[in-house]
Amino acid sequence: MQDYYTSSVLAQPNSRYNHYSAEIAVSFIKMLSNQINGGSISTRNMWQERFIKDVFGIETSNGNRQFIYAYVATDDEQERLLFLARIALFLTCADRSPNGEVYYCVTDQEQSTVIFKDICDIVVHCENLRRYIKLSLCQKKLIYKPLNSSFQIITPNEYKLVQNAHGVLVDESFVFNNCSCFNLKNIGQRTREKQPLLVVTASAQTTNKNKIFHSLHQKAINVLNGKDTDSLFYPTIIHELEHHNNS
Q: How far is CA 204 from the centre of its chain?
């Protein structure tokens, strides 16, 4: 059983829920989930569907997404990484962003190899994507040809690339010494990208003292408790209350 909270109640008065945009995102993510586990998003992880509907469905009066950065805390590390992989592929292939650049940030080449292999496995097993994607194993990069959009795994010497990103993805298991490139205020001030998205994931019981994770976790708690407000920020914290292993 899980207890989870989301901030969809923080939708601004001038925002609206675009059912069409939300369902595009949900359908795409479920298609990828089918490739991974033979089924749609599981009941145990229904927070993911709520997250997807809120982040990709709630729009401001100008038609852009309200939330441009999000924080997800859950103790299931494998599920966090799969979730980021699905979001990365959606932003690259289905978010209707021509020439969009999506980056998954890691700390070293070993991590980049593991993550990119997982992404490639999803693509290879998804016929609807495979025919439209060009893979570059040496660059840890893929290009979605219909939109000329790209997804790339990057390491510290390449972090400067995120300044022009359509999407940036970071997990707590990839801890950075220098987090200056993830300035949350700057991500919403780009001129080329109308609706960039930064997603950071971490453990719900995090004791990580790295500045970006510690401050985001505390901010998420404050927003969910009504002690802080930020119309651009979407926090989700999942607390595992009980876990039954039925054999």
A: 16
Q: Kindly tell me if the per-residue pLDDT of 57 is higher than 90.
A: yes
- Rounded to 5 degrees, φ, ψ at 144 are -90, 105
What is the sign of the dihedral through the CA atoms of 116, 94, 86 and 215?
A: positive
Q: How many CA atoms lie within 13 A of 105 on its CB side?
A: 27
Are 65 and 197 a contacting pair, CB within 8 Å? yes
Q: Which amino acid is at 124?
A: V
pLDDT by residue (tens digit) across 159-172? 777 777 899 998 88
Are 10 and 60 in contact, with CB atoms under 8 Å apart?
Answer: no
Q: What is the pTM of this model?
A: 0.87
Q: Are 239 and 2 in contact (CB under 8 A)?
A: yes
Give the whole-angstrom CA distance, residue 220 versus residue 222: 5
